[in-house]
Specification:
Blueprint: H1 19-39, H2 44-51, H3 55-83, H4 85-94, H5 103-111, H6 117-137, H7 141-156, H8 158-169, H9 174-204, H10 207-216, H11 220-232, H12 234-255
Helix pairs in contact: 3-4, 3-9, 6-7, 6-8, 6-11, 6-12, 9-11
Amino acid sequence: MNNTASPKTAGGRPSRYTFQHTLHACYTGYITQAIVNNLAPLLFVIFQQQYGLTFEEVGRLILLNFGTQIIVDVISVKLVDKIGYRAATVAAHVFAAAGLIGLGRLLFGLKGQNLNLPNVLLLSGILCMACYFVTVFSPSPILSLLACAVCGLSVSLMWPGTLSMTAARFPAGGTAMFGVMAICGDMGASAGPWLTGVISDFAQSTPAIQELSERTGESLTQLGLKSGLLVGILFPVLLAVGVILFKACYRRLQHD
């Protein structure tokens, strides 16, 4: 099947929209989704100051955000095949904000087909771990902020890279496969920040962190947040281990 062939309209006339238009719309969807999901976190500090939110409560906001996405994912698994991809995509974009471009996903959209996806995902996981370590242990706030920015770049490649790698490995997976992937992804995206918030709040009440605060002069809030981020390293570690296992299994299958 030639993906670049012009589709037909309901009246049988050639449509001016092609597969390339759909592809570009999907990439734009990634960008707008990234903007929507990253807009509220920019206001988390303001939320904490004005409403006195704890880290756990901030994490709960993210839990609710991705919990909503999980519900939509579950519904979409059955619904998309009935109403069609175009209708579902248009409906989704009605609720998405327009604006800036996510650099990592833009680059992936332009050059993703030329990349070794397992290696890219593995490097993304390693880079993410390094950024977490720098953010937690660096004495320089500027360096920690830079590490957060670089971490955002590494994370931006994970989701589209995982989708592309899975689609290449299981080309007949269909809508249900991507729906299940979206559900699992949103479960991790909701549980991870919430768990980080829980650990951050809990750490502030422990004698070890209180003693460290008195010895170093750092506030309990800072040390609590660093404790939560340190636990958060578990997630890129799991990604790296999963990619290594995937590569090992794939090589074994090719050898057999």
